[in-house]
């Protein structure tokens, strides 16, 4: 087997080997493989290897290469987690996970759809609705969120039903939500069919001929299509805009290693987190050990049963990696594109290639810095080039675009864009509800939240860092130095132990990750990076609710913990149908009797952010992107502007073209001369 880097995702050969080794440990059983993925080396074992790489020294023996395997034995109730040493070619650990559930994949969803549509009670419910002759019924399975009504020890799925009035495969079925659901067991059997509320005071009841009404045909409309085959009106005013890089891209890649404009880092990928950024250095100085999306929680705010069951952990329940799109050249990413491909597998453990799931490209981001000396009238301007690492996932109705962006001023941005189609529910014509927006006749889009957790594992000039909380306060009126009452100062306080923290715009609260042992020669203070948070409303569900108990990280925008190798997921390792907390708040609480210091320690900073999405009609039938951005900016890490050496912007390189107005004049009122 060819040598691989300790942080490289598993190769197809390794996936096949792991499946073979695990099968041999269960020779008389039928195994269903749900995840075969790299178990990253313990940080303490990995650091010497990464340091030797950074310093270009002789590499030590790499840490053992371990794969983690999630699988079912014979039947769905027997859920197991295994670890396989690829060097020794043996299973080193097996853990019983009964009571927990593996994530749901597309293959399982398709089986759920078929099982529902083939069920006689579902067919009877469809018949009772007396749908139009052209109607095509669509079943959409959702992972089940506990609401206290059902036993969660057995895996179950909730299936919503919609209708489309066109045979076209991309007709928008969310435009016609139907008034019943089905609950499906882990044996792919329909347990019950229920009529869902369509009025603000309605209750969920058993669906049958006595409770289901014929479909209200006044809800039929033709304005909810988005696909170009069905919504044919398109603007003709947009002319092509091309990205030209005549000398090629400025980045270099070697396997999963990227070098660009003093940045150096590795691209990682797994079935759950999707895109991961490893071992980030700038000008050969350590900055971050690992950056990743830890979790995403989407709770819906419709309090009527069954809608509290719509509360999706899109990473833990579905997997960002396995739902990643194949990114189209010239569509999802523009310019000179480097694609990264990774590998997953079938339920039988056969490797499957995931092509083009991460794209790497450069973009122009406007002016980076500029100054005009009014005395000489000389202007100096540089343009900002940004390197983008992007992945896009589709989870049922929604798309999410995740992008790590690196700029020439040594700053990192993490951008999330939400788009796709609103999840909808039926509503009676003329009715309204206080927890949703009517977006089309008989179509209600419920209020909901999107909460993300960004996991930041820092290495600011080393692996022993501290969190400094800085606030800006006006100087006291009685201070003799503030005679004009306009002065203000900063107050700094170190975080000593693991804790959640709040943002506070009133005092300009800033969270700095600093290395107290390394002093900036100019300021005399510690070097660091600061978090520029995306200010968001936290979880709205009451603390007693399952939404709050299960998500945990949604209570606060900032969490600080000591690093532990197995603490990667802010809502815990097992989120599907979880009924208790097992994430970041639980970890801190479990150590409260012996609090772990995070000052001058190997720490992790977690940032919760997102959007409270109260839909607009303008979000229908497909939603313009909702953009959220988190920043990581150097703060006294350098001795001057690190982008001072970026080349000056020149027309000879940019080749901009002057646009004349109708009178033949240039844009500034002078005659155009090209």
TrEMBL record:
Family per similarity comment: Belongs to the copper/topaquinone oxidase family.
GO molecular function: copper ion binding; primary methylamine oxidase activity; quinone binding
Keywords associated with the record: Copper, Disulfide bond, Metal-binding, Oxidoreductase, TPQ
Cofactor annotation remark: Contains 1 topaquinone per subunit.
GO biological process: amine metabolic process
Main EC class the enzyme belongs to: oxidoreductase
PTM comment text: Topaquinone (TPQ) is generated by copper-dependent autoxidation of a specific tyrosyl residue.
Source organism superkingdom: Eukaryota
Chain ranges passing through the membrane: none
Oligomer status and interactors: Homodimer.
Protein name: Amine oxidase
Domain Copper amine oxidase N2-terminal: 5-92
Residue numbers annotated as active site: 314 (proton acceptor), 398 (schiff-base intermediate with substrate)
All residue ranges annotated as the Copper amine oxidase N3-terminal domain in the record: 104-193
E.C. number(s) listed in UniProt: 1.4.3.-
Organism: Talaromyces pinophilus (Penicillium pinophilum)
Cofactor: Cu cation
Pfam short name (any one): Cu_amine_oxidN3
Modified residues (2',4',5'-topaquinone): 398
Cross-referenced SUPFAM superfamilies: Amine oxidase catalytic domain, Amine oxidase N-terminal region
Sequence ranges assigned to domain Copper amine oxidase catalytic in this UniProt record: 242-644
């Amino acid at each position: 087997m060819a040598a691989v880097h300790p942080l490289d995702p598993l190769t197809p050969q390794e996936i096949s080997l792991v499946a073979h080794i695990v099968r041999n440990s269960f020779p008389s059983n039928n195994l269903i493989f749900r995840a075969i993925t790299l178990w990253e080396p313990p940080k303490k074992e990995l650091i010497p290897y990464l340091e030797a790489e950074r310093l270009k020294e002789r590499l030590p023996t790499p840490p053992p290469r371990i794969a983690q395997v999630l699988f079912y034995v014979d039947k769905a109730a027997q859920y197991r987690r295994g670890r396989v040493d690829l060097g020794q070619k043996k299973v080193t650990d097996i853990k019983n996970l009964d009571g927990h559930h593996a994530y749901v994949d597309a293959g399982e969803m398709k089986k759920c759809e078929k099982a529902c549509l083939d069920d006689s009670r579902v067919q009877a419910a469809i018949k009772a609705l007396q749908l139009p002759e052209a109607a095509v019924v669509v079943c959409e399975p959702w992972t089940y969120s506990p609401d206290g009504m059902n036993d969660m020890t057995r895996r179950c799925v909730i299936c919503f039903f919609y209708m489309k009035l066109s045979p076209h495969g991309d007709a928008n079925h969310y435009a016609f939500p139907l008034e019943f659901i089905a609950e499906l067991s882990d044996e792919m059997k329909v347990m019950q069919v229920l009529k869902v509320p369509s009025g603000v005071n309605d209750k969920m009841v058993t669906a049958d001929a006595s409770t289901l009404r014929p479909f209200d045909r006044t809800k039929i409309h033709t304005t909810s299509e988005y696909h170009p085959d069905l919504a044919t009106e398109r603007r003709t005013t947009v002319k092509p805009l091309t990205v030209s890089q005549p000398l090629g891209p400025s980045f270099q890649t070697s396997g999963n290693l990227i070098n660009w404009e003093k940045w150096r880092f590795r691209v990682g990928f797994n079935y759950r987190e999707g895109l991961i950024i490893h071992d980030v250095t700038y000008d050969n100085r350590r900055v971050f050990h690992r950056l990743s999306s830890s979790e995403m929680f989407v709770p819906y705010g419709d309090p009527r049963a069954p809608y509290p069951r719509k509360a999706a952990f899109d990473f833990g329940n579905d997997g960002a990696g396995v739902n990643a799109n194949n990114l189209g050249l010239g569509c999802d990413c523009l310019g000179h594109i480097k694609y990264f491909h990774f590998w997953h597998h079938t339920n039988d453990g056969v490797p499957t290639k995931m092509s083009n799931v991460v794209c790497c490209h450069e973009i122009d981001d406007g002016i980076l810095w500029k100054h005009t000396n009014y005395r000489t009238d000389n202007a100096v301007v540089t343009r900002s080039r940004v390197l983008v690492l992007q992945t896009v996932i589709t989870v049922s109705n929604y798309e999410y675009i995740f992008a790590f962006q690196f700029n020439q001023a040594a700053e990192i941005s993490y951008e999330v864009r939400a788009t796709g189609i609103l999840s909808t529910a039926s509503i009676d014509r003329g009715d309204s509800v206080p927890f949703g927006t009517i977006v089309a006749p008989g179509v209600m889009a419920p209020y909901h939240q999107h909460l993300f957790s960004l996991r930041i594992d820092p290495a600011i000039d080393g692996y022993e860092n501290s969190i400094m909380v800085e606030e800006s306060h006006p100087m006291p009126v009685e201070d003799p130095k503030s005679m004009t009452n306009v002065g203000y100062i900063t107050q700094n306080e170190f975080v000593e132990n693991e804790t959640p923290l709040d943002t506070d715009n009133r005092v300009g609260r800033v969270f700095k990750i600093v290395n107290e042992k390394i002093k900036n020669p100019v300021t005399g203070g510690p070097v660091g990076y600061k978090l520029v948070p995306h200010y968001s409303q936290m979880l709205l569900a009451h603390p007693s609710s399952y939404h709050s108990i299960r998500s945990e990280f949604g209570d606060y925008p900032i969490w600080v913990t000591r690093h532990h190798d197995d603490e990667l997921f802010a809502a815990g390792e097992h989120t599907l149908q979880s009924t208790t907390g097992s994430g970041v708040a639980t970890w801190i609480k479990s150590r409260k009797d012996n609090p772990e210091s995070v000052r001058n320690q190997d720490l992790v900073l977690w940032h919760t952010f997102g959007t409270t999405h109260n839909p607009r009609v303008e979000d229908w039938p497909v939603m313009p992107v909702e953009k959220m951005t988190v920043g990581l900016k150097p703060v006294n890490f350098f001795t001057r502007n690190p982008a001072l050496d970026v080349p000056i912007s020149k027309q000879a390189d940019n080749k901009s073209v002057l646009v004349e107005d109708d009178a033949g004049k240039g844009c500034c009122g002078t005659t155009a001369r090209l």
